Amino acid sequence: MHKIINSDQIQQLIAGEESAFDAIYEMYCEKVYRLAFRFLKDREQSEEIVQECFINLWMSREKLNPEGNMWLYIYVIAKRLSLNALRQICQSREFADKLINRIVTSHNDTEEDLLVNELEKFTEKIINKLPKQQQLIFRLSRVEHLSHKEIADQLQISPNTVKNHMVEALKTLRSHLQYSDLIYFAVLFFWI
Fold first, then answer.
1. 13 with 24: CB under 8 angstroms?
2. Are 78 and 35 in contact (CB under 8 A)?
3. Are the C-beta atoms of 162 and 97 separated by less than 8 Å?
4. Per-10-residue mean pLDDT for the chain, 192 residues long?
5. CA 85 from chain center: how many Å?
6. For residue 95, what pLDDT is reported?
7. Which of 118, 6, 106 lies closest to 46 in space, CA to CA?
8. Angstrom distance (rounded) from CA 140 to CA 42
9. N or C: which end of the chain has fewer CB within 10 A?
10. In angstroms, rounded to a whole number, what is the distance separating the alpha carbons of residues 64 and 163?
Protein backbone atom coordinates (compact mmCIF):
# COMPACT_ATOMS: atom_id res chain seq x y z
CA MET A 1 0.00 0.00 0.00
CA HIS A 2 1.32 3.44 -0.96
CA LYS A 3 2.04 5.69 2.03
CA ILE A 4 1.10 9.36 1.95
CA ILE A 5 3.01 12.22 3.54
CA ASN A 6 0.62 13.86 6.00
CA SER A 7 0.51 17.39 7.39
CA ASP A 8 2.17 16.29 10.66
CA GLN A 9 5.21 15.04 8.73
CA ILE A 10 5.33 18.28 6.73
CA GLN A 11 5.12 20.23 10.01
CA GLN A 12 8.00 18.12 11.38
CA LEU A 13 10.03 18.85 8.23
CA ILE A 14 9.35 22.58 8.63
CA ALA A 15 10.60 22.29 12.23
CA GLY A 16 13.83 20.75 10.90
CA GLU A 17 13.32 17.15 12.00
CA GLU A 18 15.63 14.97 9.90
CA SER A 19 13.48 11.85 10.35
CA ALA A 20 10.62 13.59 8.51
CA PHE A 21 13.02 14.66 5.77
CA ASP A 22 14.34 11.10 5.48
CA ALA A 23 10.79 9.72 5.15
CA ILE A 24 9.95 12.24 2.42
CA TYR A 25 13.24 11.52 0.64
CA GLU A 26 12.60 7.76 0.72
CA MET A 27 9.09 8.20 -0.62
CA TYR A 28 9.90 10.55 -3.50
CA CYS A 29 13.56 10.14 -4.49
CA GLU A 30 12.79 7.46 -7.11
CA LYS A 31 9.99 9.54 -8.65
CA VAL A 32 12.30 12.56 -8.85
CA TYR A 33 14.97 10.42 -10.48
CA ARG A 34 12.49 9.12 -13.10
CA LEU A 35 11.30 12.65 -13.81
CA ALA A 36 14.86 13.94 -14.24
CA PHE A 37 15.83 10.95 -16.37
CA ARG A 38 12.79 11.58 -18.58
CA PHE A 39 14.37 14.92 -19.53
CA LEU A 40 18.10 14.25 -19.36
CA LYS A 41 18.46 10.56 -20.31
CA ASP A 42 21.59 10.45 -18.14
CA ARG A 43 21.94 8.53 -14.84
CA GLU A 44 24.60 10.72 -13.28
CA GLN A 45 22.85 14.00 -14.11
CA SER A 46 19.52 12.59 -12.92
CA GLU A 47 21.08 11.58 -9.60
CA GLU A 48 22.47 15.11 -9.26
CA ILE A 49 18.98 16.51 -9.83
CA VAL A 50 17.66 14.26 -7.03
CA GLN A 51 20.31 15.62 -4.66
CA GLU A 52 19.74 19.25 -5.68
CA CYS A 53 15.98 18.85 -5.41
CA PHE A 54 16.09 17.59 -1.84
CA ILE A 55 18.71 20.16 -0.84
CA ASN A 56 16.31 22.81 -2.17
CA LEU A 57 13.46 21.22 -0.23
CA TRP A 58 15.48 21.26 3.00
CA MET A 59 16.69 24.86 2.48
CA SER A 60 13.18 26.17 1.76
CA ARG A 61 11.27 23.95 4.22
CA GLU A 62 10.13 26.90 6.35
CA LYS A 63 8.11 28.22 3.39
CA LEU A 64 6.11 24.99 3.06
CA ASN A 65 2.38 24.84 3.66
CA PRO A 66 1.66 21.97 6.11
CA GLU A 67 -1.61 21.31 4.29
CA GLY A 68 0.02 21.42 0.86
CA ASN A 69 0.70 18.63 -1.60
CA MET A 70 4.29 17.51 -0.94
CA TRP A 71 4.69 15.68 -4.27
CA LEU A 72 3.47 18.71 -6.24
CA TYR A 73 6.00 20.91 -4.45
CA ILE A 74 8.86 18.44 -5.05
CA TYR A 75 7.70 17.89 -8.64
CA VAL A 76 7.89 21.63 -9.40
CA ILE A 77 11.41 21.86 -7.94
CA ALA A 78 12.61 18.75 -9.78
CA LYS A 79 11.10 19.82 -13.08
CA ARG A 80 12.63 23.28 -12.92
CA LEU A 81 16.06 21.84 -12.06
CA SER A 82 15.76 19.32 -14.90
CA LEU A 83 14.71 21.96 -17.40
CA ASN A 84 17.54 24.25 -16.31
CA ALA A 85 20.00 21.38 -16.79
CA LEU A 86 18.43 20.63 -20.17
CA ARG A 87 18.80 24.28 -21.23
CA GLN A 88 22.48 24.20 -20.25
CA ILE A 89 22.98 20.99 -22.23
CA CYS A 90 21.28 22.50 -25.26
CA GLN A 91 23.64 25.49 -25.19
CA SER A 92 26.50 23.11 -25.98
CA ARG A 93 26.23 21.43 -29.37
CA GLU A 94 28.33 18.46 -28.23
CA PHE A 95 26.11 17.84 -25.18
CA ALA A 96 22.97 18.38 -27.23
CA ASP A 97 24.13 15.71 -29.69
CA LYS A 98 24.82 13.32 -26.80
CA LEU A 99 21.35 14.01 -25.37
CA ILE A 100 19.70 13.27 -28.71
CA ASN A 101 21.62 9.99 -28.90
CA ARG A 102 20.54 9.07 -25.38
CA ILE A 103 16.91 9.85 -26.17
CA VAL A 104 17.04 7.58 -29.21
CA THR A 105 18.83 4.71 -27.44
CA SER A 106 17.19 4.78 -24.00
CA HIS A 107 13.52 5.19 -24.84
CA ASN A 108 11.54 3.72 -21.93
CA ASP A 109 7.84 3.21 -22.61
CA THR A 110 7.01 2.50 -18.97
CA GLU A 111 8.41 5.80 -17.65
CA GLU A 112 7.00 7.74 -20.56
CA ASP A 113 3.58 6.13 -20.22
CA LEU A 114 3.58 6.91 -16.50
CA LEU A 115 4.36 10.60 -17.03
CA VAL A 116 1.94 10.95 -19.92
CA ASN A 117 -0.75 9.18 -17.88
CA GLU A 118 -0.28 11.60 -14.94
CA LEU A 119 -0.37 14.53 -17.33
CA GLU A 120 -3.50 13.20 -19.07
CA LYS A 121 -5.35 12.85 -15.75
CA PHE A 122 -4.42 16.38 -14.70
CA THR A 123 -5.41 17.79 -18.08
CA GLU A 124 -8.66 15.83 -18.19
CA LYS A 125 -9.74 17.53 -14.94
CA ILE A 126 -9.10 20.94 -16.53
CA ILE A 127 -10.88 20.01 -19.77
CA ASN A 128 -13.92 18.83 -17.78
CA LYS A 129 -14.20 22.33 -16.30
CA LEU A 130 -14.41 24.00 -19.73
CA PRO A 131 -17.82 25.14 -21.02
CA LYS A 132 -19.59 22.25 -22.79
CA GLN A 133 -19.16 23.65 -26.33
CA GLN A 134 -15.44 24.32 -25.76
CA GLN A 135 -15.00 20.81 -24.32
CA LEU A 136 -16.67 19.26 -27.36
CA ILE A 137 -14.64 21.30 -29.86
CA PHE A 138 -11.40 20.68 -27.98
CA ARG A 139 -11.98 16.92 -27.92
CA LEU A 140 -12.96 16.82 -31.61
CA SER A 141 -9.76 18.69 -32.45
CA ARG A 142 -7.24 17.00 -30.13
CA VAL A 143 -8.74 13.53 -29.68
CA GLU A 144 -10.57 12.94 -32.97
CA HIS A 145 -7.97 15.01 -34.90
CA LEU A 146 -10.62 16.83 -36.93
CA SER A 147 -9.75 20.07 -38.70
CA HIS A 148 -11.52 23.31 -37.78
CA LYS A 149 -13.55 23.03 -40.99
CA GLU A 150 -14.59 19.44 -40.24
CA ILE A 151 -15.66 20.43 -36.72
CA ALA A 152 -17.56 23.43 -38.09
CA ASP A 153 -19.38 21.22 -40.61
CA GLN A 154 -20.22 18.61 -37.99
CA LEU A 155 -21.53 21.15 -35.44
CA GLN A 156 -23.05 23.45 -38.08
CA ILE A 157 -21.12 26.50 -36.89
CA SER A 158 -18.54 28.69 -38.62
CA PRO A 159 -14.84 27.70 -38.70
CA ASN A 160 -14.13 31.05 -37.04
CA THR A 161 -16.33 30.07 -34.07
CA VAL A 162 -14.41 26.79 -33.81
CA LYS A 163 -11.13 28.70 -33.85
CA ASN A 164 -12.36 31.10 -31.14
CA HIS A 165 -13.44 28.20 -28.91
CA MET A 166 -10.05 26.50 -29.39
CA VAL A 167 -8.19 29.73 -28.56
CA GLU A 168 -10.24 30.11 -25.34
CA ALA A 169 -9.83 26.44 -24.39
CA LEU A 170 -6.06 26.58 -24.89
CA LYS A 171 -5.86 29.84 -22.94
CA THR A 172 -7.67 28.18 -20.01
CA LEU A 173 -5.43 25.13 -20.18
CA ARG A 174 -2.28 27.27 -20.29
CA SER A 175 -3.35 29.24 -17.22
CA HIS A 176 -3.95 25.99 -15.29
CA LEU A 177 -0.72 24.49 -16.53
CA GLN A 178 1.34 27.50 -15.48
CA TYR A 179 3.78 25.26 -13.61
CA SER A 180 4.27 23.16 -16.73
CA ASP A 181 6.84 24.31 -19.22
CA LEU A 182 6.78 24.12 -22.99
CA ILE A 183 8.08 20.54 -23.08
CA TYR A 184 5.09 19.26 -21.11
CA PHE A 185 2.74 21.28 -23.25
CA ALA A 186 4.33 19.73 -26.33
CA VAL A 187 3.99 16.23 -24.86
CA LEU A 188 0.35 16.85 -24.08
CA PHE A 189 -0.73 18.30 -27.39
CA PHE A 190 1.52 16.72 -29.97
CA TRP A 191 2.71 13.32 -28.73
CA ILE A 192 -0.50 11.83 -27.30
1. yes
2. yes
3. no
4. 75 94 94 89 91 95 88 89 80 57 51 58 79 90 85 93 89 63 43 34
5. 16
6. 56
7. 106
8. 38
9. N
10. 41
